[in-house]
Predict the structure.
Amino acid sequence: MNMLKFLFLAYLLSLTIFSQEEPITDLIYIQNNCKGEGIYKLLDCYKKAMEGLVEDLEKKQRLEAFRKFIDSNAHIIKEHPEQVIPLAFNRSHKGYLTEAARGLLKSGKWQGKALLVHENRPEIDESPTLLRTLDGHKTTVTSVAISPDNKYVVSGSCDTTNIWDMGNGTLLRTLNGHSNSVAISVDGKHVVLGCGDFLNLNKAITIWDMQSGGLIRSLEGYGSSANSVAISTDSKYVVSGSEDNTIVVWKLADGKFLTQY
């Protein structure tokens, strides 16, 4: 009798888990319930639903894919729920989210605005595997960038800036400069660091040689800590944003100040 009761309770539990999964993998349900604080209740629902899925790996992966999607887009969809389905559709050319959005379109259940369709959308691994951890910083890592040829990773922190081999994770060289933001030129020759150096604002932006790790120059005359930097696609200009609400454009080749907004 006790065994029969146990099996019956297990059956009821499986039905409960199934019923929990169905709404929270329905994009329309998500759209209707993610507004404001509701998004945090949704995320909690995924956690509770997955706790009971010990052996059903496929369902667990599906729930985890939806949870990651909501978590990574929370800053958008909690203010604009109507973006749930377009974001899901354009996530990749296949996958749990894309298939769910495509199903709504085919069934006619969703009558929203036209979706932006990418011809060559990237594949997204719904259950990514950790390849390696780059261990070398002693303080908070504030920014990362990947070289255009996908061979190098540059990581900036409050102590130093490191250049790593993308393929095997080896630390190649250390730039003797901390950074709030890092950028790599398209030609792969230069690394630009935006720094929070209040003691010496003439070193708030520095340009380094990617291969040797040597300092090429500091962009002088900066009036505030540099929180962000970018390099133009032709590798001719550096653009920086600072805490004094200004944007400055510099010439990469000689560090010449060009304009300020």
